[in-house]
């Protein structure tokens, strides 16, 4: 699971093929002319060809959606935040052994290829639109130039900004519930109907292939077919594997090289167990100079989660032992391990078994972390070189840290553990004066002394480790609410144990107050989110829960006053309610819980209005000087 930085001072939260490629796959021009609006499945090629709008009409041009006025605003430094990754002359890079410097080049190339793949998973028009923008820029089109800045930042045509507005960069092309993973014209009802028909016709294995987290779904006549993404993007995954093999030949760390080789093998063959072996090895890495991760998270798929809403379909799937797992979206993380930061992270590890033993209803489920066994949890702090694909998309925010593999991954069934990776450059605050302006506007003056930006990092450490606490099994039965509930659990798990960790000596009494106050203040957003924004929805829920139980109050002059001693007991209550929902796996209970608490209150709106005046940021981008040089 990922945590996305969403506080209002720094809202940085963390296949389409062109005609040339079709020729490489030996599809003729005459075949291209026959393609109609619907996506067509070709068994001999195992690809989808969505390159036309209408029969015989190539989709080579787009109409840009945002006006010059809007683009100038959104690309202005006041509205476009920049997170700066390592520079070309960064001391962290210069200190590397020559072999690791060479390996870093190959890892960046692999990450760049992965971004191309994920763009197609995200939206089938992304690559064509990217090519269109580049051609228009060559012609001197200023509107295309500014549009490309936003496209590169959000890594796609469609995104949600920090004010929860849906942004589409091309007219007529909007985000679909199934993104680029499912056929564009597939509705929820048709999806359910086709699956029911296939199950009743005995196409059990075909349905399993459709409902795995790693398949692209295409039409095959009047049914659907799932193609493992390793086969679907075979050429690009093989190129990635080549780069990982090259990196493993020069990198100086034996364990890291073993992982790279396992991951390269998993990119060449469509076998989930190969990913499991790579994940298992990755989760053991602790003392390596470099960081490379293929992140696989399923927050973006809004189609698969609807299955639990259809009782007939759900019962049929249960009968055949099929779990509908939302689709993975892929990201690439490249970085250099920061030893000092990593040592600080490891302080919590000795306490994890105790935390596991104090989880609500602990006797009713199995946890990744056990009070009676070795803690299979590694953690590293990373100086970021590159973040591609899903992990690097700036969409209302960007990934701040991740705890992987998620509970739906096979590695956890073969004895694998989990690994937390924290992104140093994303959590850094660049303008402390803005932070002070924010505190002056929204926080009771007497409590300014308890707000500390570093406390947000301490909280994040607790959040990521809390993902490994609680029910180990996936929560697919909760459908579209599973991620909201899980992220809520991680937050409340972090907060609920602050007092215990203070008693155990990890935090001082002063740090305890800093974590609590910083958490409550950062939980106020600039605008009401949409239900699709799991990370933001859960903050609204927590905010209302805290207010209703006296965790904070709004003073007469419109400032937040945190009732410090009430917050942790309230968090314990909410954590217990969340764990109960996860254990029960009841979709209706989850839906009611979310809807009852996802309420934008007057108090939230009051603070939001103040935050909007201070922080104008709408979008964000990454500055990756070192990666750019390595990719030349």
Could you please describe the fold and organization of this structure?
The chain has 632 residues and is an alpha+beta fold. 46% of the residues lie in helices and 13% in strands. Strands 1-12-13-11-10-9 form a six-stranded mixed beta sheet. Strand 5 (158-160) and strand 6 (166-168) form a beta hairpin. Helix 3 crosses helix 7 (142-154), helix 18 (432-442) runs antiparallel to helix 26 and helix 20 crosses helix 23 (534-548). The radius of gyration is 24 Å and the shape is globular. It starts with a strand and ends with a helix.
Structure summarized in a few sentences:
With 632 residues, the protein is of the alpha+beta class. The chain is globular.
Shape call: globular
Rg of Cα set: 24 Å
Number of helices: 27
Q: Helix share of residues?
A: 40-55%
Structural class: alpha+beta
Q: The biggest beta sheet, please?
A: 6 strands, mixed
Q: Segments where pLDDT lies below 50 for 5+ residues? A: 3-57
- The strand line-up of the biggest sheet is 1-12-13-11-10-9
């Amino acid at each position: 699971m990922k945590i996305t930085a969403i506080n209002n001072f720094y809202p940085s939260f963390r296949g389409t093929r062109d005609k040339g490629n079709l020729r490489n796959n030996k599809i003729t021009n005459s075949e291209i002319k026959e393609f109609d609006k619907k996506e067509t499945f070709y068994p001999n090629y195992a690809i989808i060809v969505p390159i036309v709008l209408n029969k015989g009409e190539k989709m080579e041009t787009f109409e840009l959606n945002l006006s010059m006025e809007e683009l100038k605003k959104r690309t202005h430094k006041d509205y476009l935040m920049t997170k700066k990754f390592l520079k070309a002359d960064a001391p962290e890079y210069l200190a590397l052994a020559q072999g690791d410097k060479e390996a870093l080049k190959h890892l960046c190339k692999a990450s760049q290829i992965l971004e191309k793949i994920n763009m197609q998973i995200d939206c089938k028009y992304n690559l064509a639109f990217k090519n269109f923008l580049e051609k228009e820029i060559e012609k001197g089109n200023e509107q295309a130039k500014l549009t490309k800045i936003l496209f590169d930042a959000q890594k796609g045509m469609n995104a949600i900004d920090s004010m929860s507005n849906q942004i589409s960069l091309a007219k007529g092309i909007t985000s679909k519930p199934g993104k680029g993973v499912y056929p564009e014209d597939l509705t929820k009802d048709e999806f359910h109907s086709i699956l029911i028909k296939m199950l009743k016709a005995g196409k059990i294995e075909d349905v399993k292939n459709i409902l795995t987290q790693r398949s692209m779904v295409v039409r095959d006549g009047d049914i659907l077919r799932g193609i493992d993404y390793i086969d679907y993007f075979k050429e690009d995954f093989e190129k990635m594997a080549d780069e990982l093999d090259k990196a493993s030949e020069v990198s100086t760390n034996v364990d890291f090289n073993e992982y790279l080789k396992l991951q390269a093998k998993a990119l060449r063959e469509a076998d989930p167990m190969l990913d499991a072996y790579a994940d298992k090895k990755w989760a053991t890495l602790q003392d390596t100079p470099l960081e490379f991760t293929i992140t696989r998270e399923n927050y973006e798929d809004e189609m698969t989660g609807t299955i639990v809403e259809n009782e007939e379909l759900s019962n049929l799937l249960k009968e055949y032992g099929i779990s509908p797992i939302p689709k993975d979206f892929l990201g690439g993380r490249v970085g250099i391990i920061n030893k000092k930061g990593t040592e600080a992270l490891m302080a919590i590890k000795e306490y994890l078994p105790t935390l596991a033993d104090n989880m609500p209803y602990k006797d009713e489920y199995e946890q990744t972390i056990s009070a009676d066994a070795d803690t299979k949890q590694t953690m590293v702090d990373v100086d970021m070189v590159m973040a591609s694909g899903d992990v690097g998309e700036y969409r209302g925010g960007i990934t701040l840290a991740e705890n992987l593999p998620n509970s739906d991954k096979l590695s956890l069934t073969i004895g694998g553990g989990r690994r937390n990776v924290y992104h140093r450059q994303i959590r850094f605050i660049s303008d402390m004066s803005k932070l002070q302006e924010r505190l002056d506007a929204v926080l009771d003056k007497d409590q300014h002394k308890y707000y500390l930006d570093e406390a947000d990092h301490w909280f994040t450490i607790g959040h990521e480790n809390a993902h490994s606490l609680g029910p180990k099994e996936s929560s697919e039965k909760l459908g579209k609410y599973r991620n909201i509930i899980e992220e809520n659990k991680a937050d409340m798990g972090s907060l609920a144990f602050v007092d215990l960790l203070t008693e155990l000596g990890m935090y001082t009494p002063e740090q305890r107050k800093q974590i609590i106050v910083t958490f409550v203040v950062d939980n106020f957003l600039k605008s009401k989110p949409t239900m699709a924004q799991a990370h933001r929805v859960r903050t609204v829920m927590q905010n209302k829960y805290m207010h209703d139980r006296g965790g904070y109050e709004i003073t007469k002059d419109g400032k937040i006053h945190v009732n410090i001693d009430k917050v942790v007991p309230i968090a314990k209550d909410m954590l217990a309610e969340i764990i109960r929902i996860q254990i029960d796996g009841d979709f209706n209970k989850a839906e009611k819980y979310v809807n009852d608490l996802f309420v934008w209150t007057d108090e939230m709106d009051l603070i939001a209005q103040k935050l909007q005046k201070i922080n104008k940021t709408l979008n964000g981008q990454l500055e990756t000087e070192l990666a750019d040089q390595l990719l030349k």
